[in-house]
Amino acid sequence: MIARCPSCAAEVEEDAKRCPACHWDFAARRAPAKLGIDDAAAEVLKRALKLEDFFPEFTAEIAQKVFPRSGLFAYADKGSLVEQGESGRDLFIVCHGSVQVERGDGTATKVLATLGAGSLLGEIALIKNVPRTATVTAVEQAQIYRLDFNDLQYLLANNKALGDHLRELASSRSR
Ligand SMILES: [Zn+2]
Fold it and tell me: In sequence order, what are the residues at sequence separation of 6 or more whose Cβ sits closer than 8 angstroms to the Cβ of residue 23?
């Protein structure tokens, strides 16, 4: 069954918790609020994305220039970042708070990990071009940087350290 997102009118699954296009949260009836990025968040991105050689200094201003489609978002408690089985190749970096990663196998749901500030996630779908392999929700309130797939292209093509890191992460988390 197909429904429509009340925010952007994209077609979504009837039981979707969140619109994959605009990230509208159906339970909360709003999209995660976009926050201004500050230099502390930029520093978290720099470490998580292995940008040291690319941008010895990576400030909030540079982040906004090189990642124009991306941004820092405030998620409410249990707000959904990613749903297992949906498509999507954005990366997520936890800047403040934490998220819970869980996987269902049809009958049971297992919590795989709780990831805190500095953690990067979403790399399996990105690297392997497969549907999301787990569901990720905010634990209490969390600030998450959502790195748009289109903003990543140049970095992926030119920053070998990041590509290697993402492949290693994807491989270790797929086991
Ligand atoms: Zn939408």
Answer: 31, 32, 73, 146
pLDDT tens-digit series, residues 47-89: 999 999 889 999 999 999 999 999 999 999 999 999 999 889 9
Domain range for 44 is 32-174
Query: How many distinct structural domains can be found in the chain?
Result: 2
CA–centroid distance, 15 to ligand 1, in Å, is 14
Q: How many Å lie between the centroid of ligand 1 and the Cα of residue 159?
A: 32
Angle at 94 between CA 92 and CA 97, to 5 degrees: 145
Q: What is the pTM of this model?
A: 0.91
* Pair 49, 26 in one domain: no
Q: How far is the CA of 11 from the centre of ligand 1 (A)?
A: 8
CA of 31 from ligand 1 middle (Å) equals: 8
- Based on the fold, state whether residues 20 and 37 are members of the same structural domain: no
Q: Ligand 1 centre and the CA of 52: distance in Å?
A: 35
Q: What φ, ψ does residue 45 adopt, rounded to 5°? A: -65, -45
72 and 2 housed in the same domain: no
CA of 8 to the centre of ligand 1 (A): 4
**157: domain CATH number?**
2.60.120.10
